[in-house]
């Protein structure tokens, strides 16, 4: 099925709500540029879209800019319909090979399912809002890495938040409570001062088999 949207804001709303395999993106869009939409797409850590840039820009620097921003392919206007179809099909084949992004992630006593957009702690499903799940998925996909406040905000809100905003910290607090991050469950979520947050699998949890995980070090939490 093909869905057409006419501006960047509609694109972001649609991509937040729907599952897609590929995006054909024009550089010139009302409200937002195609590059801005692409930057948002590439910071959605829980989803890996294939992106084809379709535009009248033909300068080498423009091509380089789009590719460096994360576009998978680039097609200049005017174009032949057959070539567009062929490039989209090739892009879909590449996306199909990248199946691991749809596989469940197991960390500590948790299972994250990107397809169902759900998280389980042992056999209990954890109820998360859309933004909470997007943040959790970003952290799960990047275990052990510092996720900047800017990236996390863009992942959940589609834009950076002001320096005075505490929305991200409030969502992180709720995530800690809902996921019950504790000594028994094998994950540590730490605030890295001025930078962002990092989700770590504790050594005992990472080394032990699934049936004996849980004997982990004391959870250390700090607040930004």
TrEMBL record:
It comes from Burkholderia arboris. InterPro entries: CheY-like_superfamily (IPR011006), OmpR/PhoB-type_DNA-bd (IPR001867), Sig_transdc_resp-reg_receiver (IPR001789), WalR-like (IPR039420), WH-like_DNA-bd_sf (IPR036388). It holds the Pfam family Trans_reg_C. This is Two-component system response regulator. One of its GO terms (cellular component) is cytosol. CDD domains: trans_reg_C (cd00383). It comes from the Bacteria. Residues 1-92 form the Response regulatory domain. Residues 102-201 form the OmpR/PhoB-type domain. Keywords: DNA-binding, Phosphoprotein, Two-component regulatory system. Residues 102-201 bind DNA. GO terms for molecular function: phosphorelay response regulator activity; transcription cis-regulatory region binding. The modification 4-aspartylphosphate is found at residue 26. The keyword Phosphoprotein applies. The keyword DNA-binding applies. GO terms for biological process: regulation of DNA-templated transcription.
């Amino acid at each position: 099925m093909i869905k057409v949207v006419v501006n960047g804001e509609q694109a972001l709303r649609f991509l937040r709500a729907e599952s897609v395999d590929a995006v054909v993106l024009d550089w010139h869009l009302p409200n937002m540029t195609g590059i801005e939409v692409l930057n948002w797409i590439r910071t959605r850590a829980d989803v890996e879209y294939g992106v084809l840039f379709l535009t009248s820009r033909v300068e080498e620097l423009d091509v380089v800019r789009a590719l460096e921003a994360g576009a998978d392919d680039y097609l200049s206007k005017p174009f032949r319909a057959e070539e567009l179809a062929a490039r989209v099909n090739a892009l879909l084949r590449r996306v199909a090979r990248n199946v691991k992004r749809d596989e469940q992630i197991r960390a500590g006593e948790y299972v994250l399912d990107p397809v169902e957009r759900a998280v389980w702690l042992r056999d209990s499903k954890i109820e998360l809002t859309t933004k909470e799940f997007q943040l959790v998925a970003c952290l799960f996909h990047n275990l052990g890495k510092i996720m900047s406040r800017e990236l996390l905000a863009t992942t959940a809100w589609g834009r950076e938040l002001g320096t005075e905003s505490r929305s991200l910290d409030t969502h992180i607090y709720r995530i800690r409570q809902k996921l019950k991050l504790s000594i028994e469950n094998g994950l540590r979520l730490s605030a890295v001062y001025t930078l962002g947050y990092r989700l770590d699998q504790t050594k005992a949890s990472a080394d032990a088999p699934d049936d004996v995980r849980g004997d982990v070090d004391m959870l250390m939490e700090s607040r930004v």
